[in-house]
Each structure stands twice: as structure tokens, then as C-alpha cells.
Design a protein that fits this description.
The chain is built from 4 helices and 5 strands, in the order E-H-E-H-E-H-E-H-E. It is of the alpha/beta class. It has a 5-stranded parallel β-sheet with strand order 3-2-1-4-5, with helices on both faces. The longest helix is centred in the N-terminal third of the chain and has 12 residues. The radius of gyration is 14 Å and the shape is globular.
């Protein structure tokens, strides 16, 4: 099994971009996507109530990708990196944001922190605006 920790925020378009990228991987039938939604405050809400997680889970399940969901509380980058360690994940998947030409030189802070801190391959996806 090839485990991918997928850091999903509340943006549906970014979550779908991540799910679509994973669904297009060769051998996706052997992939397990661990959807991780991190909240900075109390993690009282159920992860099933987060629309972006629901949409990503639906997209991945339709592509025959095994999906599990988790929620964590704290710094998003640290929680994603911790989950990757805990699951001994083969890969981490995060989503970048559309930026101005200057902003493109620097990823969003969570994405940048994950890419810099990761000890494993990291897939950065971007939701395309139409």
C-alpha cells in the first residue's frame, strides 16, 4: 500500500485538485489517501462536516482510492508532518494557492513549511481558476 497524507483545508477547489492529482496516479488502486483536516482552535466539529473533505473523499472513492479521514488541532504544517511520520507515509500532498507574480516566489506558509520540513516526497497541487 502506498500511503499519502493529504492536508485538506476548507477550500473545496484546492481539495478537489489534490484528489484529482491522486486519482490520476498510476497504480491508484494501491493508494491509501489519509485526508487530514487541521483546525487551529478546538477540534470540536466532526470532519465529516467539512465540505472540502467530503468532496475530496467522494472524488477519491470514485477513483477506487482507499480513503481515511482524520482531524487534528494545532499548527497545520506540524500536524501534517506529524501525521506523515505517524503513518510512515510514502508521500505528502498539499495545495498551493494562486499568487501574484511576486507571491509565486513564496508558497503559502503551510505549504512552504511542509515542503521545507518534509523528509519524504511532497506533491504540491494547485486549483486552476477557469
Amino acid at each position: 500500500m502506498y500511503d499519502i497524507v493529504v492536508g485538506v483545508d476548507t477550500d473545496v477547489d484546492r481539495a478537489l485538485a489534490q484528489a484529482e492529482a491522486i486519482a490520476e496516479l498510476p497504480g491508484r488502486e494501491e493508494v491509501r489517501a489519509i485526508l487530514l483536516h487541521v483546525v487551529r482552535g478546538s477540534a470540536d466539529g466532526a470532519i465529516e462536516d467539512v465540505e472540502s473533505v467530503t468532496e475530496a473523499r467522494t472524488e477519491l472513492a470514485a477513483a477506487d482510492v482507499e480513503v481515511t479521514t482524520e482531524t487534528a488541532e494545532g499548527d497545520p504544517a506540524m500536524c501534517i508532518l506529524d501525521a506523515a511520520e505517524r503513518h510512515d507515509a510514502n508521500c505528502i500532498c498539499v495545495a498551493g494557492r494562486d499568487r501574484s507574480p511576486t507571491g509565486k516566489a513564496i508558497f503559502g506558509s503551510v505549504t512552504q513549511d511542509v515542503v521545507v520540513g518534509a523528509k519524504r516526497p511532497t506533491l504540491v497541487c494547485s486549483a486552476s481558476k477557469q
